[in-house]
Design a protein that fits this description.
189 residues, 6-stranded parallel beta sheet, two-stranded parallel ribbon, globular, Plant_NBS-LRR, plant defense, LRR_dom_sf
């Protein structure tokens, strides 16, 4: 009681070297990156976040003016039952290479506030992504999102994507925001 584990510097130092991290019922944290580790979790390979009622995003910079390097070795991201998760990485966040460059698998289930999985500017970092599994996210509209759909150029590329599983997504509109032929949207192009 009255001990705020995520605000302790010693705990944040441990997060710098950890390779596998399970945060279960770890409430009181709204932004994983800025509240738990400012060095981008440089060694983290597997991240599991389960049953969290407070987290809104993994990375949401406040008053940051330079690009951030985040999760450079992350291979597996598993998000389960995160009630308030709205985004993985906020639109105001600028990332630098090798952020998310080794991510191979992303699994998301029962994240009712999530509207999209990736913003379009994050896709260029996802060169190793092999598997996307998303299920039972009642607010999810698309996998890739862009606020301003008029600024798009070319098609999205996930060069290693081999497995895509989308289940029970009642608000789902399409994979990405790219429109073809006057307001026509198709799942893949």
């Amino acid at each position: 009681n009255d001990f705020d584990i995520h605000s302790q510097n010693e705990i944040k130092m441990l997060f710098e070297r950890v390779e596998k991290l399970l945060l279960e019922k770890f409430n009181g944290v709204q932004d994983l990156f800025y509240e738990l580790n400012l060095k981008g979790f440089p060694c983290l390979k597997h991240l599991f976040i389960v049953s969290n009622s407070d987290i809104c995003s993994l990375i949401n910079p406040i008053d940051r003016k330079h690009p951030e390097m985040a999760f450079p070795k992350l291979e597996l991201l598993d998000l389960y039952k995160l009630k308030k998760l709205e985004e993985i990485c906020s639109f105001s966040c600028e990332l630098s290479k090798p952020s998310f460059g080794k991510l191979k698998i992303i699994k998301i289930k029962l994240c009712s506030a999530l509207k999209n999985v990736f913003r379009i500017s994050l896709v260029r970092f996802l060169t190793s992504l092999e598997t996307i599994q998303v299920s039972e996210c009642s607010s999810l509209k698309d996998i890739v999102h862009e606020e301003d759909t008029t600024s798009q150029s070319g098609s999205l590329v996930f060069p290693e994507l081999r497995h895509l599983s989308l289940r029970s997504l009642v608000e789902f509109v399409g994979f990405d925001p790219i429109l073809l032929e006057e307001d026509t949207r198709i799942l893949f192009h």
